[in-house]
Amino acid sequence: MIVFTVIAAVLALAAVVYLVVALVRPERF
Question: Which InterPro entries does this entry report, sorted A to Z (predicted)?
Answer without folding.
Answer: KdpF (IPR011726)
